Amino acid sequence: FFSAPCWQDDAEFADAIRERQETKDELKDLKDLFAKLEEDSGFVQQSLRFRSKVLMMERIDVLQAREKQQDANLPDVGASDTIRGPPGIVFAKEGYMTVKRFAGFLGMQEQYHIV
């Protein structure tokens, strides 16, 4: 037996992968904008932008949580850690295999070993 995570390769899967990429892009853009605002502003400008920077930090926190959840639930499609299986299935290259053997008196007892 072999057990590994798998996903059905359909429109919903493609949408989820696209959304993950959009989340990563938006997070990168927000971090770049936040760093730019930190660099090129004086004391007065920083005090005027305080509210927008707080809102931006809250949005960054939300996006980081979403990115963490998406990375835990979705594979890196196109990377070397996934395999396209039978039509419409994507498998992760990680998993475990169990080997069944018969043991005991006259081989009457089934035993499973994880390889």
Which features would summarize this protein structure in a list?
115 residues, alpha+beta, 3-stranded antiparallel beta sheet, 6 strands, 51% helix, elongated
Give a quick summary of the entry:
The protein is an alpha+beta fold and 115 residues long.
Q: Uncertain segments of ≥5 residues (pLDDT<50)? A: none
Helices and strands, in order, run as EEHHHEEEE
Sequence of strands across the biggest β-sheet: 1-5-6
General form: elongated
Helix count, DSSP H or I runs of 4 or more residues? 3
Cα gyration radius (Å): 24 Å
What do you see in this structure?
The protein has 3 helices and 6 strands; from the N terminus they run ββαααββββ. It is an alpha+beta fold. A 3-stranded antiparallel β-sheet has the order 1-5-6, with no helix packed on it. The protein has a 3-stranded antiparallel β-sheet with strand order 2-4-3, with no helix packed on it. Helix 1 runs antiparallel to helix 3. It is elongated, with a radius of gyration of 24 Å. The model has no long low-confidence stretch (mean pLDDT 83).
How do the helices and strands line up, and which of them pair or pack?
Layout: E1 2-3, E2 6-8, H1 11-39, H2 43-48, H3 50-73, E3 82-84, E4 89-92, E5 96-103, E6 109-114
Antiparallel strand pairs: 1-5, 2-4, 3-4, 5-6
Helix pairs in contact: 1-3
